Amino acid sequence: MSEIIKQSAAELAEHLQRGELSAVEVTEAHLERISNVDGEINAFLAINDDAVKTAAEIDAKRAAGEQLPELAGVPLAIKDVLVTRDMPSTSGSKILEGYMSPFDATVVAKSREAGLVPLGKTNMDEFAMGSSGENSAYGATKNPWDLSRIPGGSGSGSAAAIAAFEAPLALGSDTGGSIRQPAALTGTVGVKPTYGGVSRYGAIAMASSLDQIGPCTRTVLDAALLHDVIGGYDWHDSTSLQHDWPSMAAAARQGADPSSLQGVKIGVVKELLADASQRGVAEAFERALELAAEQGAEIVEVSAPHFEYAVAAYYLIMPAEVSSNLARYDSVRFGLRVTPEGGGTVDAVMGATRAAGFGAEAKRRIILGTYALSAGYYDAYYGSAQKVRTLVQQDFNSAFAEVDVLASPTAPTTAWKIGERVDDPMVNYINDATTIPTNLAGIPGMSLPVGLAAEDGLPVGLQLMAPQYADDRLYRIGASFETLIAQLEGKQFWELAPALGEVK
User: Fold this and answer.
1) Is 444 exposed, middle or buried (0-12, 13-18, 19+ CB in 10 A)?
2) Do the domain assignments include residue 367?
3) Is 32 exposed, middle or buried (0-12, 13-18, 19+ CB in 10 A)?
4) Which of 62, 161, 252, 477 is the most buried (most CB within 10 A)?
5) Half-sphere exposure of 360 (CA within 13 A, CB side)
């Protein structure tokens, strides 16, 4: 395996700035890695034909003495939920197969302005609907730690690409855990920013009040560096926050010294800990908290009594918004069009198109959401779910009055076998129990790896949650945990990952 692709984004940036590597060398190394291993992983749906050309342009600017942003020349993978003007944007669905957007999503445009080199678009559950990566119309993504297992979802491709050293940085989206849960199952770092802290303009909508764009990386500092690039106000997005955000990278660098945990109050959510159904997950989580306590952190148990209703509320609110957002795929304006034999009315063409274009999970959620919004049921279902959402937000407010951050396992289990749960969608829904509350409340959350489960040797993720606007707190405390785990293991966690070909 090339030494170049083993570097973190921060390390690559330093090598590029010192002239020890060129952007072309770095880009070509990652493209070669994709060519060598992605046939087994299926993390990418499209490769950027202009990646090397873009890298060469950055090298030319640097050679001319131009002052470039810190990450200029570092490669980036982009979840296919984000539209791009030079690559297809399908959101993992047949109904958008081959669709070319006339513009870039804001986060993509910002990454280009920062000199990042887009490598390609990553695989995902269709319209971000799923927790396993098995719901893509273009085939399931596989977990680089064990090719017989799922990498999590919906951001399966971004997480798998990072874990397999196909990219040092990736963009993802998180509606109910779609950045954090795959990060946990692949031993990577994933962050869901405060809702509105990163623009959603150009993100193909699933559930607009829940969706949030964020970074996927192998280290906390890398996530912070990418967060600084993509964050901030965007007038295109009506939900974008006008806020003076601090540097996330500065916070991560400060937190790299674990002594900064002295006096930090970490709340363990009793209701979420109960969801950790695998012994090895609970053990790795508890060991991480013990390491923090040894540095002077105070571990406090807190209760969030309404969290037990969060999954039920989410699976009413989210499908309701799905049914509204996916109504635009009507066979008339853009996307796939299927005409019944012998022709037909607009309704007949629309029905045939949606039947052929949407997968089973998308259809399931559209139907559920349409029912929840129908006359006579709106107040009983959608309206009641929104009331529960308010109660969840109040639980967070009460908890943060006592502690600085909240902690839980990111996922109740490690990665399961491909095909193991396809016949029981409820099992997948419940798997999001620990990540969903942060989306309902709009607060930031981070997953970082804290060990391997004793039963199967697969990664376990620690989830940290902070109050609204306190994203930098996650990076500071997350970086401290990362350092403690590295000291315990004797190496960075990502160095534990097996090279493809040595996987189980």
Assistant:
1) buried
2) no
3) middle
4) 161
5) 6
Phi/psi at 417 (5° precision): -70, 145
- State how far the Cα of 129 lies from the Cα of 156, in Å rounded to an integer: 11
Specify the pLDDT at position 428. Answer: 78
Residue 259 falls inside a structural domain: yes
- The rounded mean pLDDT for the chain is 94
In this structure, are residues 410 and 436 in contact, taking their beta carbons and an 8 Å threshold?
A: no
Residue type, 27: T
On the question of pLDDT at 226 being above 90, the answer is yes
Residue 324 designated active-site:
no
3-state secondary structure (DSSP) of residue 469: coil
Q: Tokens representing 24?
A: 């072309």
**Domain tally for the chain?**
1
Q: Note if 178 is an active site residue.
A: yes
Give the domain range for residue 221: 4-307+390-496
Whether residue 191 contacts residue 158, with contact meaning beta carbons closer than 8 Å, is answered with no
> Can 265 be counted among the known catalytic residues?
no
Q: How far is CA 30 from the centre of its chain?
A: 21
10 is written with which tokens?
A: 């921060």
Q: With bands split at pLDDT 50, 70 and 90, how would you rate the model's confidence at 503?
A: very low
In a domain, 361, yes or no: no
> How far is residue 292's CA from residue 306's CA, in Å, rounded to a whole number?
27
For 141-168, write each residue's pLDDT tens digit. Answer: 999 999 999 999 999 999 999 999 999 9
pLDDT per residue as tens digits for the range 68-101: 999 999 999 999 999 999 999 999 999 999 999 9
CA 317/CA 236 separation, integer angstroms: 24
Global pTM reads: 0.96
Name 260's Cβ contacts closer than 8 Å, sequence gap at least 6.
254, 476, 480
* 332 against 5, higher pLDDT: 5
Q: Which of 89, 91, 101, 178 is catalytic?
A: 178
Give domain status of residue 444, yes or no: yes
Q: Which of 8, 79, 121, 480 is catalytic?
A: 79
- Owner of token pair 């087994």: 40
Overall average pLDDT of the 281-287 stretch: 95
Residue type for 259, please? S
Catalytic residue among 93, 131, 154, 240: 154
Six token digits for residue 97:
């197969």
Residue type, 416: W
Question: Rounded CA gap, 45 and 120, in Å?
Answer: 7
Note the Cα 493 to chain centre separation in Å: 19
Q: How far apart are CA 302 and CA 341, in angstroms?
A: 61
How far, in Å, CA of 319 to CA of 317, rounded?
Answer: 6
DSSP state of 383: I
CATH, residue 48: 3.90.1300.10
